[in-house]
Write a structure and sequence with these properties.
Distance between the termini: 121 Å
Radius of gyration: 52 Å
Strand content: 5-15%
Largest sheet: 5 strands, antiparallel
Strand order of the largest sheet: 1-2-3-4-5
Number of strands: 5
Length: 281
Amino acid sequence: RGIYKRGSMENHSYQVEIIVDTLSLSSRHTKDLSLALDYLVVLTSIKVRVHDAGSADSFLDQLRCVVPAVLREHCTSAEEIGLAFRLMLRIPLIGRERLNTPRCSDLECVLLTYKQLEQFRSRKKGVLSSRGRFSLLHRFASHWVSASATLSALYGSRSSCWLARLENMWRSTEALRQGLLEQCERKAMAFEERRLRGTTRTTQLAKRIGRLAQRWQCRQDRHSKEARRITVAQRRAALARTRAEMQRRRAARDARWKRLIRPDITMEDILRERLRPEAPP
C-alpha cells in the first residue's frame, strides 16, 4: 500500500493507506501531492515503530502508544491528517473474501473492535494440516454464529448489510467446506487403514518371532539331551573300567591266596615270591 490517485485526470485527489497487521491506516483525500507524501511519511513511521517494538507488548498496546507519539514527533494531529482506521478480517473456511469494517477515526473504538474480532481471525498462513482443517470444521458452526453476533452488536443499525453479506458468504462456501470435510474423512480412513495394516504386520512379525523362538528352544533341548547322553556314557565307561580293575585285582588276590595255601609250599617259596617285584597291571 502507499499513495492512491483517485478520480479523473482533470479532477483527482491523493490518499495514503498503510497496512499494519490487519489494521488499515488511511489519510484524508488531498489534491496536493507533497502533502500526501507528508502523510505517507507519518503513517510509514507508525508502521515501522510498531514493527520495531517487537513482541514485548501486545499489538493493541503498541498501537495505543505509538500512534500519539509519532503524531507528536511530526508536529501534527489525527484531525489534520484525517487519520482513519478499519479492520480487514478474513474468517477461516469462507474462501479468500475479506471483510473490511467501516472506517473510524476513534483509535480506542477500533482497538476495542480489534480485540472483539481477534478470535475470529485466520492466523495461520499457508496450507493447514488435516488435523487443523478438521478442528476448524468441527467448531465452524459455533464459530460462525459467534462472529455474526459480535458483528451485529458492534455495528448496530449498520449490521444488516454485514449480516446479509455474511449469509451470502456462508452459502457460497458451503460446497468448499463439504469438500474439505470429505477430504479430511478420506485422510482419516486412510490413516486408520494404515494403522490396521501396521497392526497386522506387527502381529505377523510377532508370530514369526514366536516360531523362531520355538525352533531355537527345540534346538537347545536337543543340545541339552545330547550333552546329558554323552555325560551318562562317560560315567558308564568310567564305572566299567573301575569294575574291570576291581575284578582283576580280586582275581590276582585269589590266585595268590591259592598259591599260599598249597600243602607243598615252603617258607622259602613265600619269601621268594614276596621279594619278587610285582608285575605291572
